[in-house]
Amino acid sequence: MGLNTEGAQSGNEPHIHAGAIEALYKSQSWYEAYMAALFEADRRQIGESIRRAEFLILNRERELLSGPSDRIEQRALNNALHALRALRGCLKL
What we know:
The chain is an all-alpha fold.
């Protein structure tokens, strides 16, 4: 997968970079736990799935505080945490 130099010159490079970062965080445990919680079908397990995802998200946020800033992943973590809290509220957990 090569980079089209015309695309890089036209300002598309940040989009390509963002997609690469997104692909990296989507393979991390916090994202997998987040998706598992969102799509948990067993009502008895959803509370635990949400807690696990929230725990992993908060741990990842702490990791990012001590390293180089990754705004794309930080935004994704924030959005995921808000979505899980909204889900928890909707389900009255």
